[in-house]
Hints:
Layout: E1 8-13, E2 16-22, E3 32-35, E4 41-46, E5 52-56, E6 71-75, E7 78-82, E8 89-91, E9 110-112
Amino acid sequence: MSGSTPVMIQLRLDEDWLEICDRTQLMPGRGLAALLPDGRQAALFLDREGRAYAIDNRDPFTGAAVLSRGLLGTERGRPFVASPLLKQRFDLETGRCLDDEEVSVAVHPVRVA
Length: 113
């Protein structure tokens, strides 16, 4: 729609909201990597119901920044992403690894505004 206001995906960093991308750039079932001001990366996801999630993009098992390229799924109604390398699954709401309870990734508050 021409002239319409873009709908933005925003991440909360400290006390501020950082605009990451237009909502149209995030497709359900596919991740997007975003470089944060401090040099870290976040992996953003949109589920089929339109809920947005953001976790650290770095896979804690390999150190590679690849979680944005993982496969999305659900277990017991909880959304997760499976790492494309070793297939460990990370809960998108808590960051907890579903395959190793001692491992987790950071979760970033995210909103569609």
